[in-house]
Structure formats: C-alpha cells, structure tokens
Write a structure and sequence with these properties.
This protein has 225 residues and is α/β, with parallel strands linked by helices. The chain folds into two domains: 161 residues, HAD superfamily/HAD-like (Rossmann fold), CATH 3.40.50.1000; 57 residues. A five-stranded parallel β-sheet has the order 5-2-6-7-8, covered by helices on one side. Strands 1-10-9 form a three-stranded antiparallel β-sheet, with no helix packed on it.
C-alpha cells in the first residue's frame, strides 16, 4: 500500500467511475461501419477523447457538428450495461463533496445521462467537453477542474484510464492514478501514470483533515508494467 496526500481528486468518468465501454464500442462500431472505416481502429481512437475530435479526424470535410450530434444521440440512447465500476460508490461516498469532481470528454448532457443510469451522484461542478476549447490530451480540462475546486493543479490527483487523459493530467502538472479497466498497464506507464491500480476499490480515504490522505494498492507485478 502507498500513502499519498492531495487537495482533491479529479476523476475521468468512462472507464474510471462507470463501465460504459460496451455501449461506447457499440456506438462507434456502427458509426465506423456506416462510414466505411475500420471499426476496431475507430473504437480505439475514440476512447478517452471528445467525440468531435474523432469525427473531425475521420471526416475532415463533413458537417462536424451534425455528425457529432448524431453520435451523441446514439450514445444517449444506448445505456445497456452502463454500471458503476467496483469501489466507485464507496469511494465517492467517503470524499467531501468539495474535494472531488468529474472531468469527462463526454458532453454535459451525455455525462449526466450516464451518471444517472449508473446511479452515481452528479457533482454540482464538473468539466465536460462542453466546457473546454481543447480536449484531452491538452491540459485545459484538468487545469479548469482544479480551478473549479479552487486548488492548484499540482496539489490534485487525476484518476484516469486512457493514455490521452493521463497525458492531459501530467501536462496540467497533476499526479495521475491510472486504472487497467480499458488499457494495458504498459500503455498507462508509457503515458506517464504515477500509479497503476485495478479500479476505485484500490483507493481508500483514511483522512480528510487538511489534505486528503489516501492509500493506493499500486500494482507492482512486473508482468503488468
């Protein structure tokens, strides 16, 4: 167990707090097939980034906003299997509400729909793709989240599952916990993760006096790194 101190936790949503991977994969797979692209490649590139970024990359001459609205509509309609990941409910319940928020590449509408479907609390203040000009891996999302909670980014810990999100957190100056929920540990290490865990069940709050004091069950198995 590793003990760490921070002012706040900044959570990604999909793959960190909730399991929406099957739904995301279904939506992007169908979108890719409909446009004649390799579905496995599209699904892999779409994960952890704003959907508009993926649309622009694959359809540079299309009506990006229209295409993105269609992707969002499909994602909002497909909530089958959207559930909280292990440890999520217990960890969030243990944290003071002013010491955590969510930073997601989803739109605000989609984020709220998925959080409700998973039965998770919706923070009063959260950062979505609707709130930033530059999405992950740019540092803007996590810099804005730290500012939202009124803490320096360097005093925050980001919790992520995608290389793009890890890079965003590191570029913002945070430390990063990464989960092996959607990417192999080797890719998470390469992206710059400070600690690699299975999921929220590997994080325990032991104190919130002054700063947050947490224990992390970091994965030290060399086969995972």
């Amino acid at each position: 167990m590793t003990q760490v101190h921070c002012s706040a936790l900044l959570f990604d949503m999909d793959g960190v707090l909730i399991d929406s991977t099957p739904a995301v994969a279904r939506v992007w797979h169908r979108w890719a097939i409909g446009h004649g692209f390799n579905p496995e490649e599209v699904v892999a590139r779409a994960h952890g980034r704003p959907s508009l970024t993926t649309v622009r990359e694959y359809l540079p001459n299309a009506d990006h906003e229209k295409e993105n609205r269609e992707v969002e509509r499909r994602e909002i309609e497909d909530l089958e299997g959207v559930v909280p990941l292990p440890g999520t409910l217990d960890l969030l319940a243990s944290l003071p509400e002013n010491r955590w928020t969510i930073v997601t590449s989803s739109s605000r509408r989609l984020a709220e729909v998925r959080l409700r479907a998973a039965g998770l609390p919706i923070p009063n203040r959260l950062i979505t793709s609707s709130d930033v000009t530059h999405g992950k891996p740019h540092p803007e999302p996590y810099l804005k989240a730290a500012q939202l909670l009124d803490f320096p980014a360097t005093d925050c810990i980001v919790v992520e599952d995608a290389p793009a999100g890890i890079q965003s957190g590191k570029a913002a100056g945070t430390r990063v916990v990464a989960f092996t929920t959607t990417s192999p540990a080797s890719a998470l290490r390469q992206a710059g993760a400070d600690w690699i865990l299975h999921n929220c069940a590997d994080i325990r709050r032991i104190s919130s006096e002054g700063s947050l004091t947490l224990t992390l069950a970091d994965l030290h198995d060399p086969m995972l790194t």
